[in-house]
Backbone:
């Protein structure tokens, strides 16, 4: 007898978002093999890792980390593409949950008061229907037991894609486009700022400069992946 779920899978096959192979019944989103072989950075073990170094002399942060290494044409790129452009919100949540299980014990992250996703402009949000960084933040929030705040940081301008821009051009593209609501309510708080992929850090730098209007604020960074060499 063919059950309804089996019939549906024949028409809409369930495939791994990383490798494209068929998923077994007990697998969701990513196959166990891809999950096991995800290229983890383990940056959270070192407060002064390459992500943290990227912001030295630019803006002050407590620490920074990325869950995975991003290589062009690799499985992580495929995962991020599925998350951003194919409506796979579940991928962001899954990766956030996996990283949250680690960061909840990591110095520089386990004392945070809120998780802040890098915001999309409302026009792009309407087009996409969701914010990929917010999905990652939602995933992090569960195991870390830290709330996500979607309203503290807002974006006032819809910018061009950062892909293929130089570091200076990336910074100019996002300069002074982020704003903070009711900064006085967050005095002395520790915030985790999250994004999908970090390359030059220009977008995160602009966000941090906006968040620095909050008196005595502490900021850490957590991303899905880093494209830095």
Residues:
């Amino acid at each position: 007898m063919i059950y309804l779920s089996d019939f549906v899978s024949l028409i809409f096959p369930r495939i791994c978002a990383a490798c494209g192979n068929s998923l077994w019944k007990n697998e969701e989103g990513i196959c166990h093999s891809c999950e096991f072989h995800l290229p983890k950075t383990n940056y959270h073990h070192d407060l002064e890792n390459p992500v943290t170094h990227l912001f030295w002399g630019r803006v002050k942060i407590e620490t920074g980390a990325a869950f995975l290494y991003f290589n062009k044409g690799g499985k992580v790129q495929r995962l991020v593409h599925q998350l951003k452009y194919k409506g796979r919100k579940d991928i962001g949540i899954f990766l956030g949950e996996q990283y949250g299980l680690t960061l909840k014990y990591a110095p520089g992250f386990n004392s945070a008061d809120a998780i802040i996703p890098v915001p999309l402009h409302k026009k792009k949000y309407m087009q996409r229907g969701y914010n990929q960084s917010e999905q990652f933040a939602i995933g992090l929030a569960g195991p870390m037991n830290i709330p996500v705040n979607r309203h503290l940081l807002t974006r006032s301008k819809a910018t061009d894609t950062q892909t293929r821009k130089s570091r200076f051009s990336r910074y100019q593209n996002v300069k002074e486009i982020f704003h903070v609501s009711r900064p006085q309510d967050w005095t002395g708080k520790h915030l985790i700022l999250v994004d999908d992929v970090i390359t030059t850090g220009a977008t995160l730098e602009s966000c941090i400069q906006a968040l620095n209007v909050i008196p005595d604020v502490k900021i850490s960074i957590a991303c899905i992946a880093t494209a830095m060499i």
